[in-house]
Amino acid sequence: MNLTTAEIAKRLDGEVLGDANAALTGFAQAAEAKPGDLTFAENAEFFAAAENSAATAIIAGKEFSSDKKIVIRVANARIGFAKALAIFFPEPKFAAGIHPTAVIAKSAKIDATAHIGPHCVVGERVNIGANCVLQSGNSVGNDSKLGDETNLFPNVTVYPRTQIGKRVRIHAGSVIGSDGYGYVLDAGVHRKVPQVGNVVIGDDVEIGANVTIDRGALGSTTIGCGTKIDNLVQIAHNVVIGENCIVISQVGIAGSTKLGNYVILAGQVGVAGHLKIGNHVTIGAQSGLMYDCADGEKWMGSPARPDRDFKRQFIALQHLPDLLKKISAWEKKFGVGEEE
């Protein structure tokens, strides 16, 4: 790829300080950049490193300028970075058509622009939209629907009756619509409660590798539009996740919990069942949440509590050794023995 700094700046809604006709052929971090490369800097430390690199140009915020390098100034360097990566490293294209090793039910409806890769299985009455991609080894169960431009990476399994929106990306090894974990004790035996619901995934959702989303016992497990789910996440039956949420690696959400919009669950958070979590709530890493959360709250710890309470208790614990020393000194001073 060979683009000028002016062409890149136009795509980033930025402005060029320096040679607008300089050719840019690649993108790299400052330490590995070579002539012709574009790099980026989101703070003064990174900008200094970029100025001293071999890169030809730097994406940076509007407060930066340089006598050494061409600068493409943008409103937000991190957003500019994301847009530039998409320019230099575009998504691979998949040719329309069905691989001869794929097994397709006669009643399935597959758009002519879709790509069905090797060893895929598409069940009865499945509907696959325009420009969808099943890369390889995918199984899509009966009566499922995939919206336009949805991309299933290798070995994704979609259970029957799953509804997936447009532009959804599901990474390798994930399982969508497996049985919810439902049992009832009957005469000393754990009797299985049939899980007869489904999973509904909104538009523009991205699901990482080796994620499991259980279908509802009755009704649906729902993932809202724009939500992004990291690798190794477990979402139980009848969970409802709102729009534009961030769910980071190794989170587990128990059954029937409801999350509002723009919720952030940091790494390894465990969420108990039947909770209600409001909009714009943040739960800190490794927290164990057992209570409802109102809009805008931040919770931390295990068991989780509001962040101010957690911080006060954490600071108090840090003072505990000194406090014990003081108590010991008082006991000696006033002649208080261990028995007393």
Task: Explain the overall architecture.
With 340 residues, the chain is an alpha/beta fold. Helix content is 16%, strand content 30%. Strand 39 (298-300) and strand 40 form a beta hairpin. The longest helix has 27 residues, at 307-333. The model has no long low-confidence stretch (mean pLDDT 95).
Question: Can you lay out the helices and strands and say which pair or pack?
Answer:
Blueprint (H helix, E strand, L loop, with lengths): L2 E2 H7 L3 E3 L5 E2 L1 E2 L9 E4 L3 H8 L5 E5 L8 E5 L2 H12 L8 E2 L4 E2 L4 E2 L4 E2 L4 E2 L4 E2 L4 E2 L4 E2 L4 E2 L4 E2 L4 E2 L4 E2 L4 E2 L4 E4 L4 E4 L2 E4 L5 E4 L4 E2 L4 E3 L5 E4 L4 E2 L4 E2 L4 E2 L4 E2 L4 E2 L4 E2 L4 E2 L4 E2 L4 E2 L4 E2 L4 E2 L8 E3 L4 E2 H27 L7
Parallel strand pairs: 4-5, 5-6, 6-7, 8-11, 9-12, 10-13, 11-14, 12-15, 13-16, 14-17, 15-18, 16-19, 17-20, 18-21, 19-24, 20-25, 21-26, 24-27, 25-28, 26-29, 27-30, 28-31, 29-32, 30-33, 31-34, 32-35, 33-36, 34-37, 35-38, 37-39
Antiparallel strand pairs: 1-3, 2-7, 22-23, 39-40
Largest beta-sheet details: 12 strands, mixed
CATH-defined superfamily of the domain at 156-303: Hexapeptide repeat proteins
Strand order of the largest sheet: 8-11-14-17-20-25-28-31-34-37-39-40
Helix amount, in percent? 10-25%
Number of strands: 40
Number of helical segments with 4 or more residues = 4
What's the end-to-end separation, in Å?
A: 81 Å
Corresponding CATH architecture of the domain at 156-303: 3 Solenoid
Task: Tell the overall outline.
Answer: flat
Structural class: alpha/beta
Name the poorly predicted regions: none
CATH topology of the domain at 156-303: UDP N-Acetylglucosamine Acyltransferase, domain 1
Proportion of beta-strand residues? 25-35%
